[in-house]
Design a protein that fits this description.
The complex is a heterodimer of chains A (139) and B (121). Chain A has 139 residues and is mainly alpha-helical. Chain A contains six helices and no strands. Chain A starts with 11 loop residues before the first helix and ends in a 9-residue tail after the last helix. In chain A, 24% of the residues are buried. The chains are: A mainly alpha (139), B mainly alpha (121). At the A-B interface, helix 5 and helix 6 of A face helix 1, helix 2 and helix 3 of B.
């Protein structure tokens, strides 16, 4: 029987890469859980905010992840709602990519309708503008 | 389900079409032997760069990711491949620059902390 490409053996390079990524993420999560970016001295500030003084769509992500890792969902939502809402998507997709890299088999076969992506883009830009107005007071 | 050769509606468990007799299950249709064209749009990487890298350079990557799926929907495979390349490039630009800024900042604070300690002792 001919072997399908989806049944190929795991590539050592991919295994190394994926395990390194997982280890790095675990390490980062450990550090981020232990230290609050709002007060610890070694977390980098947002370059956009440092240069312009305005918040960017990603501002508050580190502090938000710190709160999430400690189980404070409401605090994380206040710091960066966009990050909290996009985490499930990023998590599922990255896990799917990792599985695909390892086994050659695609878990998620989702074609996101282009209109959804354009809407998401509009939402991100709108969030970016609005969070620099008095409507948003935190982060 | 519907018969692949004549389109007649059939029971989901039927193995042969009630109208034309074509085999409904088991034998894969000729189309599926060639893998469907999948063009990566790097959407999750783009969103991750925008939201997690603390850096708005991920925005162009999302624009290109949207273009990929728009063009695939229109049947413009060549254009979709181009947009896919651009989406990938912007993801790397956003991720790389975020990483460089982060590492430089870390090096800067560590060195200045060490210098301060030296001066204090």
């Amino acid at each position: 029987m001919k072997t399908l490409p989806s049944q190929k053996a795991w590539q050592p390079a991919c295994v190394l890469l994926v395990s390194m990524a997982v280890a790095l993420m675990a390490l980062a999560a450990g550090v981020l859980r232990a230290f609050d970016p709002a007060s610890a001295w070694f977390f980098p500030p947002c370059p956009f905010r440092a240069l312009t003084g305005f918040l960017c769509p990603g501002c508050g992500t580190l502090r938000g992840l710190h709160e999430l890792l400690r189980g404070h969902v409401a605090a994380a939502l206040r710091l960066n709602p966009l990050m909290v809402l996009s985490l499930p998507f990023i998590g599922c997709s990255s896990a799917s990519s990792a599985v695909e890299a390892l086994t050659g088999r695609r878990l998620l076969r989702v074609f996101v309708p282009p209109a959804c992506i354009w809407m998401l883009l509009a939402m991100i830009v709108l969030f970016w503008i609005l969070r620099n107005t008095p409507l948003f007071t935190t982060a | 389900m519907y018969c692949r050769s004549c389109g007649a509606p059939n029971d989901d468990n039927a193995w042969k079409c009630i109208k034309c007799g074509a085999v409904l299950q088991g034998a894969a249709p000729a189309v599926s032997t060639t893998p469907p064209i999948t063009i990566p749009n790097y959407l999750w990487q783009a969103i991750a760069c925008t939201v997690l890298c603390c850096w708005p350079l991920g925005i162009p990557a999302i624009v290109y990711a949207a273009q990929v799926n728009t063009k695939v929907g229109q049947g413009d495979i060549e254009g979709a491949r181009n947009s896919s390349q651009n989406a990938k490039m912007w993801c790397w630009i956003a991720f790389g620059s975020g990483l460089v800024v982060g590492v430089l900042y870390l090096a800067f604070v560590v060195i200045s902390a060490m210098l301060q300690q030296k001066r204090g002792s």
